[in-house]
Amino acid sequence: MTATDPIKDAVTQARQRQILEAAVTVFAEKGYHRATIRDIARTAGIADGTIYNYFKNKQDVMMNVVLQMAEVSSLMEDVLQAAQTMTPAQLLAMVFQNRLRTLRKNLPLTRAIFPQVVTDSELQQMFFEELLLPNMEKGEAVFQAYRDRHQLGGADPKMIVRGLFSVIFGTIMMALLGDTFILDDTDAFSEQMTDIFLHGLNLDQPEREQ
Amino acid sequence: MTATDPIKDAVTQARQRQILEAAVTVFAEKGYHRATIRDIARTAGIADGTIYNYFKNKQDVMMNVVLQMAEVSSLMEDVLQAAQTMTPAQLLAMVFQNRLRTLRKNLPLTRAIFPQVVTDSELQQMFFEELLLPNMEKGEAVFQAYRDRHQLGGADPKMIVRGLFSVIFGTIMMALLGDTFILDDTDAFSEQMTDIFLHGLNLDQPEREQ
Amino acid sequence: MTATDPIKDAVTQARQRQILEAAVTVFAEKGYHRATIRDIARTAGIADGTIYNYFKNKQDVMMNVVLQMAEVSSLMEDVLQAAQTMTPAQLLAMVFQNRLRTLRKNLPLTRAIFPQVVTDSELQQMFFEELLLPNMEKGEAVFQAYRDRHQLGGADPKMIVRGLFSVIFGTIMMALLGDTFILDDTDAFSEQMTDIFLHGLNLDQPEREQ
Amino acid sequence: MTATDPIKDAVTQARQRQILEAAVTVFAEKGYHRATIRDIARTAGIADGTIYNYFKNKQDVMMNVVLQMAEVSSLMEDVLQAAQTMTPAQLLAMVFQNRLRTLRKNLPLTRAIFPQVVTDSELQQMFFEELLLPNMEKGEAVFQAYRDRHQLGGADPKMIVRGLFSVIFGTIMMALLGDTFILDDTDAFSEQMTDIFLHGLNLDQPEREQ
DNA sequence: TATGAATGAGATTTCATTCAT
DNA sequence: CATGAATGAAATCTCATTCAT
């Protein structure tokens, strides 16, 4: 029974992807609440009921949409690991640019997801544990490494990472709240914030010393 | 024509406040969607229909809850104006602390409001035009003044303000997403971020020169 | 207590007229159901509650609007009585023209009143007993008189009157249902129908004989 | 694309009929406004929501009740076409009798429908375009044919048809307004009105000449 | 596994009417 | 008598979810 038939698994995964793709489209277009299961089913070209063979309920669909972003976001993890050979300056610049560009592409979906993640405690917890926390820990490790290599002043890596994440999430919020200034000139803002952090953390000096 | 009877006005305002207070309570407890008009009415100790004598609809109630926050926020405006006699360091420290402490007190309400502001385009626009933009402009003016007095390097005030607001909104987001680290030690984080910004903007040097 | 103070009575009647006038305006504009008591009060320039000092409820307002039409319609009674010196041809022509012209002026109000009279059994009964039946009886008397004077064939006056009233109400219905043909050329239709009836009832022959 | 599955179509139609039947019952009993969707659903033995799988809203249900009458009324069309072999006298007699008998059977439903058709402009337009106008045009054609065959005097067919329809609608109105005289003796009234029209239009003379 | 019709709980909103001032 | 704020019943409609086929 539980013997995993690889073919069936593949079919199942394909179907799930198909549904999630449709969900992403519809959520981005209408937001979570105004998106109906019927919308998603129609967009996916399947029947309403079929969705319930692959997901527990609407919340579960959203959950998996978010988790899917996790995988995309794990690209970021790779980046962070690869980043251990970078200077802090390079790292910061890259992270800012990467995140802001991603945001600009996905603003409508982001607008649908964030409110729901913040509102739904189950979703929020999942998001925190599966995505936010791991990534923050990655970041802390990187900054700890810098510190160990004396490339960094005495600032607490935890704090630094919070600062970085705050700027990034804050930028997202600003965009969602209607301030287009940052999005209009992503690169300038990235540079500016990179500068501030480098300087502020005294990361520019030690760097050159190397 | 519409000769304003001061007594009736007072009664009306009192009733509105009563409803908004109830709305704040209920929204904070259940979030926007799960909060029903009936909940709010019961909490306010009035009949459902009465709410519609004071607000157009549920969205309008939320709108006014947000606007009410504006008045609280206008405290911030005063602060900003009073701030013109402060050093940048003092200003930054104060703003950070003020905002984070306010946030910590109002986290549940914030959790109800933000998603809705981001989701509802009408609400979002109102929020942007009535609250966000004016406050940003105040901030820009303050930093422009610093710049004119040579207390500030060449950074664009618009950018600086975006940076500051991003950190603040980002911090809110972090809290809403479940990261208690910042909230647990608001003051340390404030200091840290103030430091980074001061340093990063070269605001510490000119200051001393004075 | 019940001593009727003529001054108060006059005031009361004036107020009632004021309300009914407003009601006519609002009913004509919105129809019975979409017209609110508030609409009527605003239009009359008084408070909602005041209406209930002069009328039992909304239905009662409508009832009196209809009764008011009765008085206008009693003009018709006068006409009918005066008509006893007319030839049948003159009478028919006059009645048709009179009714159709009145209709054309009051189409929107008619559109509001008829449905309600037909729907509300109390209103319907009142309308029948106070307006329809008396007028029909007047008509029957007139035609009976014609018959007695041998100006009319053997047709039953009751039937004739039903026929006449049917054409008139039917014309109203046609107009309410959207057929503008009759309304566009009221006079031609009046002539046509007069002709048919005169001819059909052999009213044209005896007439000339006189 | 929308390959029509005949079985599903049949089921759908059956369900629609079931709902409309219930609607007819409830509307006839309570009138449009006091009939609730719940009433109709209960009467049809289904859930409230199910109605919305088959009709857009309550108005749409009424609309289809009226349209359904159209099909019944199309019997009348057949009649009219078959009528081309009849003498005008036969035709008139038949139409009057047919309509009045139908009315007598459906008085309560008629009482519910007419007010709403007159009140709701969308419904009215549909009624006019789908039912009234086509039937009037049929009638005009028939009378034009009579005229061409010199069975009719110089009267304008359009006018004649308006006259006929007015009498019919007027009779309906009289019944709805509480005058039972006509309904009590449908046949006598039919004869009477047929006579008047025949005579009035000089339709009796040419007839005999043939 | 796929379908999609059926379900029915649930929420917003309107508005005639009342009644304290 | 006038006012108009308060009332709360009542009705439409939506949509996530189920389940028989």
Verbal overview:
The structure is a homotetramer of 210-residue chains. Chain A is mainly alpha-helical and 210 residues long. The first copy, chain A, folds into 2 domains: 1-55, Arc Repressor Mutant, subunit A (Orthogonal Bundle); 59-209, Orthogonal Bundle (Tetracycline Repressor, domain 2), CATH 1.10.357. Helix content of chain A is 82%, strand content 0%. Chain A has 11 helices and no strands. Chain A has helices at residues 6-34, 37-44, 48-54, 58-82, 88-105, 107-119, 121-148, 157-176, 181-184, 186-200, 204-209. The model of chain A is unreliable at 206-210 (pLDDT under 50). Chains in contact: A-B, C-D. The interface between A and B is large, with 51 and 51 residues.
Supply database-style keywords:
210 residues, disordered C terminus, DNA-binding, homotetramer, Tetracycline Repressor, domain 2, mainly alpha, 2 domains
Quick overview of this protein structure:
The structure is a homotetramer of 210-residue chains. With 210 residues, chain A is mostly helical.
Secondary structure: helix percent of chain A: over 70%
SS-based class of chain A: mainly alpha
Please report the distance between the alpha carbons of the first and last residues of chain A: 61 Å
What does the main sheet of chain A amount to?
Answer: none
Order of helices and strands of chain A: HHHHHHHHHHH
How much of the sequence lies in strands of chain A comes to under 5%
Number of discrete helical segments of chain A:
11
User: Oligomeric state of the chains?
Assistant: homotetramer
CATH level 1 name of the largest domain in chain A: Mainly Alpha
Name given to the CATH architecture of the largest domain in chain A: Orthogonal Bundle
Shape of chain A: elongated
